[in-house]
Each structure stands twice: as C-alpha cells, then as structure tokens.
Amino acid sequence: MTERGSARERPTLEMVASHAGVSRATVSRVVNGSESVAPHLRAVVMRSVEVLGYVPNQAARSLVTQRTDALALVVPEPDSRIFSDDPFFPGIIHGVSAELEAAGKQLVLIMSASGESHARVERYAAGGHVDGVMLFSIHGEDPLPATLVRLGIPVVCNGRPLGETALPYVDAENEGGAAEAVRYLRSRGRSRIATIAGPQDMVAGIDRLNGYLSALEGAPPLIAYGEFTRASGSAAMRELLATAPDLDAVFAASDLMADGALRMLRQAGRRVPDDVAVIGFDDNVVAAFADPPLTTVRQPIQDLGRGLARQLLRLLDGEDVEDAYMLPTQLVIRESA
What we know:
- The protein is of the alpha/beta class.
- It has three domains: 3-65, Orthogonal Bundle (434 Repressor (Amino-terminal Domain)), CATH 1.10.260; 70-172 and 302-327, Rossmann fold (3-Layer(aba) Sandwich), CATH 3.40.50; 174-298, Response regulator (Rossmann fold), CATH 3.40.50.
- It is 46% helix and 16% strand.
- It has helices at residues 3-8, 13-20, 24-31, 39-52, 58-65, 79-82, 88-102, 115-126, 144-150, 174-187, 203-214, 230-243, 255-267, 285-288, 301-316, and strands at 70-75, 106-111, 132-136, 155-158, 169-172, 193-197, 222-225, 249-252, 277-282, 295-298, 324-327, 330-332.
- The longest helix has 16 residues, at 301-316.
C-alpha cells in the first residue's frame, strides 16, 4: 500500500480492537462512554485510539447513544435583526456557545422568522438532528414551543413563554430592574417620567413596562412604544416630546432605544441630564459610549446565554430544572441621569 493510500484509510473499530488485543464490543463500549469496562482495559483501548487516530463515526455512535451531542439555538428573528448593531444577540450567542463548548457539545444556530422556517425547524428537530432546543427572542404566543414539546423534544426558553405551554425558562429580573430605574429618577426629583416601552408581544417589553408603571406611585404614565432599536427609540422620543413637552425624565426599555432618544433630545435642544434625565436597560457597549454615557439597568447578557445552555444540559441529563431561572439586574449610574 502506498503512503498516500495509507493516509486515506480511516481507522475502524476492528483495527482498534486488533491493536489493543480486545474485542470489538469492548472498543465500542469504551468509545461510547460505557461504565462497564475495567479501567485497565479502558486505558489500553484509549491508547490504541490515540495511536491509530481513530475518530468515532457520529452517525453510528448516535444509533447507540441516541444522542447527537448537538443543541439548537432557535431565534425567531430576521437575519437583519440578529446581525444588526444590537450587541444583545451576539452576547447571548457567545454565552450559549461558551457553555456548550465546555460541555463538549455542538451549537446549531437556526434563524426562524417565518411560518415556513418554523416548519423547517420542526422537521429538523423531529428528524433527530439535535438533542434539544433553546428558544430565544420569542414573540407573542408563538406556536413553535408547543409544537416542539408535542414532538417530545426537550426545550428551554429565554424569557417567560407567553402561551399556555409551560416550559422552563431563563430570564433577568426585568420588572424589578425597570422599577428600580424609575424609583431612582423619582429620588432625583423627577416628576414627569416617561417611558419608551419595548414591543408588547415580547415578555421583556411587557415586564419592563409593568416595572415602570408599578414605580410611578400614582403619577400619570407617559408611554410611547419602540421595537428595541435605535430608530424606534428616536421616533418614540419625538412622539413623547410632542405629547408631553414638560417631561423631565425617560426610562427606555433598551440601551439602543435610549441612545436613539438621546439623539432626538439633542436635535430638540434638550440638555441631558439637566432638562431630561435618561435611563436605559441592558448595559451593553452602547451605554458606555453614548453621549452622554448612559445610566442603565445592567442585565448579565452572557450569563443569560450560559444559563440557557446549562438548563437544557441539565434537562437532557435527567436532572431537576427550575421552572424559572432568574438572574438579578443592577442599576449602573453614569452621566445621563
């Protein structure tokens, strides 16, 4: 056999068994993680695996273990949103990826913004290509979570599901963080406090608005709505200035919307924080480099991603998983309020 031909030959279980002087069945049990093989035999087999450069056939291994070692992160958002200037999405993906990497698992990122792509996700998951699914950025009573559960696929959500299907989820203390921001504004003497609320088909938008309302203590609410984007924050700020020109503070439900509000306030000749104080939510890179630097509610974005992956891994291992895995928020004071 030529050297080139030898390089092309892929080591097999039989070759490892022959090299190690054990049965094929013993090699199979070792490479599939069975605990029934004696330590000294396991060491012999693993040495032969290393010497020969044997790589298990994943398809065959999956038939034995019923596992693919791949987990899907499904994001029901268009590509333009995920790959925009919003640091939230990369932060979540980075956290998920880091946790799965540490566990030796493969991340499969799936974008699913339409009914057709939802059907593709269902077929893909039902086909056994992944062991479980993490759902992120769910809108409204999306039918996808219930469908995946009905198919018997382990699912964990980022954010409380709004539909009737009960699923374990990971989230930040959105309502409490928003209430803390408004209470801080009131403690600084602000009395006409407006909010730029997030979309009301998402749990983060709903909970942050509820936090704002709960902390007003009888003061009249001043509300405009955005879409967690900079442009929507500017448009909402323009609306608020038209309907409530005497406002003296704004709580925006995301840093991007707060940054858009800052730009509109500058255009309107309003000084921040002298005339209008502004607080955002997230504490991503946008907040630190805003003009002026943005007071905001910090949520641990990468930890949310890590928690999402960790909960799904625990679910797959048969461990008890909390219905709600909540992470704390923290008010970070900068120059805007």
